[in-house]
Amino acid sequence: MRDLADGLAVTLSDVEARVTALTEYNPMLGMRGVRLGITVPEIYEMQARAIFEATVQASRDGDPVVPEVMIPLVSAMKEVELVKARIDAVAAQVRAHSGAEFDYRLGVMVETPRAALRAADIAQHAAFLSFGTNDLTQMTYGLSRDDAGRFMSIYVKNGVYEEDPFHSLDLEGVGELLQIGAERGRAGRPDVTLSICGEHGGSRNAIEFCRRQGFDYVSCSPFRVPVARLAAAQLALLDGAKADKNTTIV
CA-CA distance, 178 to 133, in Å (whole number)? Predict the structure, then answer.
């Protein structure tokens, strides 16, 4: 904090007061994601500029790059409109300064129940919707994924939950929100790209669910990619076997 104060030419007490003012009782439900981008817009503008300048540089050495910019923790269409307007302005500035043309796709991370319910409106301003199942599970259950481990084993042991919902996607509750969000997102924008991301994206039951719902892809942490690919391949073979009764899966 002292180094920051020196760099900004302010007193240490000013920095300490700002830190205190930013302190939240529940940061997971506080000013993060798109809320930070709207209240402190220069942060998103700086990040967007870095992405677009890198896009211009990378495109000079090969095929045109089309970056995908995703807005996290959205709950209202107006949030997307405000951020999109600022990012479009930054893109225009980079095009004018560099003399290079480029395209980009803007998407939304659907992590709140409200975003899933209002997906038809939100999708009108988003080329893709990525359902962040970690936070969506947390908010649907009203559980802190960082603290639930204290009692989750007891809940599973007593049959309250069949499995830890942060380890295995809850197809009944969270899954219904995913289904609603997908249907309404397509209603608002028929060509919208749908996906899920998070630890659930690497599990077989989540991949199978996404295939049934017509999602375009899943993403997960790197160490789960081999298992996810294997599950996707097995499910594709099973689908083929159902279509062709003469096919046998060994």
Answer: 9
Residues 218, 228 contacting (CB under 8 angstroms): yes
Full domain range(s) for residue 7: 1-30
pLDDT in tens, 173-192: 999 999 999 999 999 999 99
CATH number of the domain that 124 lies in?
3.20.20.60
Give tens-digit pLDDT for 56-74. 999 998 889 999 999 999 9
Task: Write down the residue that tokens 């042991």 correspond to.
Answer: 157
Q: Does 109 share its domain with 209?
A: yes
Same domain for 232 and 126: yes
The Cα–Cα gap between 153 and 28 comes to 23
Report field, pTM of the whole predicted structure over 0.85: yes
- Nearest CA to 228 out of 205, 202, 197 is that of 202
